[in-house]
Amino acid sequence: MTNPLPVLLSTLSAILLASTAMAQSDLLIYPAKGQSPEQQARDSSECSAWATQQTQFDPTTPAPVYTPPTGQANTQQRGGAVRGAAGGAALGAIGGAIGGDAGQGAAVGAGVGAGAGAIRQRRGNRAAAEANTQSQANADAAYQQALADYNAKRERHKQATATCLQGRGYTVN
Questions:
Q1: Which of 80, 137, 144, 161 could anchor a disulfide with 51, C-beta 3.0 to 4.6 Å?
Q2: Residue 110 Cα to chain centre, angstroms
Q3: How does pLDDT run across 35-59, given as a tens digit for each residue?
Q4: Hey, how many other C-beta atoms are within 10 angstroms of the C-beta on 45?
Q5: Inter-residue contact 64 to 93 (CB < 8 Å)
């Protein structure tokens, strides 16, 4: 039976190198004092860990993802004129009955009610559209701020890693 320890160590080294490479992908590191690739990988990993501790930012953390505001469903109301006409007709019929012609009163009431219902519906739809637009603008601004914060923290981590590597004899750009 073979010893699994070398395979395990090899696998862990590959994972460590991959995560270090991912975290250092935007740094150009030159071993100015002739450090071996293994030493450079070790130093890069240790410096990245140190930078994470110093900045409280883990470079493997994914960037923020835009989340659209909830409740953005079509809030357009329909049927305002019909509801207004029905209510107007009922009131018109009552008023017309008092005046002696319920049918004429219902017809006039239906026309007035339809117009009023349509106006209420348009106002409500306009207010809902404005609220949706404001909600979208707020979500956009929150995302832009979160992304700016993330990028600033990522840049600070990169600077800390570069400082550490320079202290260990590497030229870093």
A1: 161
A2: 47
A3: 999 999 999 999 999 999 999 999 9
A4: 18
A5: no
Q: Tell me how far apart the alpha carbons of residues 2 and 32 are, in angstroms, rounded to a whole number.
A: 40
99-139 pLDDT, tens per residue?
Answer: 566 566 666 666 767 677 777 778 888 888 888 888 899 99
User: Could you tell me which residues are beta bridge partners of residue 30?
Assistant: 171
Amino acid residing at 29: I
Structurally, the chain folds into a number of domains equal to 1
Task: Name the nearest CA neighbour of 25 among 169, 158, 167, 159.
Answer: 158
Residue 159, domain extent: 1-173
Q: Which 3 state secondary structure label does DSSP give 51?
A: helix
Tell me which amino acid residue 168 is. Answer: R
At residue 153, what is the residue type? K
Structure tokens belonging to residue 86: 């029905």
Nearest one of 44, 54, 55 to 16, comparing CA atoms = 44
Residue 84: is it exposed, middle or buried by C-beta count within 10 angstroms (0-12/13-18/19+)? buried
**Where does residue 139 rank: exposed (0-12), middle (13-18), buried (19+ CB within 10 A)?**
middle
Residue in this structure with the two tokens 């348009």, named with its chain if needed? 122
Alpha helices per DSSP H over the chain: 5-23, 37-55, 80-99, 102-167
